[in-house]
Amino acid sequence: GAVVSQHPSRVICKSGTSVKIECRSLDFQATTMFWYRQFPKQSLMLMATSNEGSKATYEQGVEKDKFLINHASLTLSTLTVTSAHPEDSSFYICSARDREPDGYTFGSGTRLTVV
Amino acid sequence: EDKVVQSPLSLVVHEGDTVTLNCSYEVTNFRSLLWYKQEKKAPTFLFMLTSSGIEKKSGRLSSILDKKELFSILNITATQTGDSAVYLCAVRNSGNTPLVFGKGTRLSVIA
To answer: Which residue, A30, A51, A111, B30, is most buried by CB atoms nearer than 10 A?
Structure first.
């Protein structure tokens, strides 16, 4: 089946630094990648929709200058959390539409802890 | 605004019990409803439902959709401790759109 590889799986960083999360579709072309955030004991909340070769579309309340999304190729989308703060600590997951008519494949997630 | 509501939010049962998880939705252009199981990492796919009244089954898990009443149920029979997880319901609209997730039901199965 379709696979989305997400790295890193876990990262701890200091306040004020930036962290880049990568999602790579391994055996299919992902023209669209969705980025979600999940706080403890809460559901997945869509942050942004990333389209290859164009600017990402951000959900209301998500700062585009803080969460930089780049989708420069059909197999790679990146989310950079800039100037991270402790409140950015969360579980970040990407999801891509795969080959199946209604298929969505999730990355394995990145647990970010900002100290 | 698209909405997916799951109930109950949490549930504690004993091994061997049968549970029913509920998901109701209000979306603009319904295409499909999906169920996921989430343990410590990313959600894993369980079922996708597009037609009313057709039960999907996988082992002890089964699910059905009612498009007239806009809800779905996920049944788990003879529960085991390994079934403990958060079960997420998500709905997809037509077009290249993201999934809309419910808040999930946290199921705890105790021995």
So the answer is: A30
Specify the pLDDT at position A31.
Answer: 84
Establish if A108 touches chain B: CB-CB under 8 angstroms. Answer: yes
How many H-runs (helices) and E-runs (strands) does chain A carry?
A: 0, 11
Distance from CA of B83 to the nearest CA of A (A): 17
Q: What is the pLDDT of residues B86-104, one digit of tens each?
A: 999 999 888 778 889 999 9
pLDDT at B79 over 90: yes
Helices and strands in chain B: count of H runs, count of E runs: 0, 11
Three-state secondary-structure class, residue A71: strand
Mutate to test the interface with A, among B94, B96, B105, B106 (most CBs of A within 10 A): B96
How far is residue B56's CA from residue A3's CA, in Å, rounded to a whole number? 24
Q: Nearest CB to A109: which of B34, B41, B98?
A: B41
Q: Which of B34, B96, B100 sits opposite A32 (nearest CB)?
A: B96
Token representation of residue A27:
């055996």
Of A43, A95, A109, the CB nearest to B102: A43
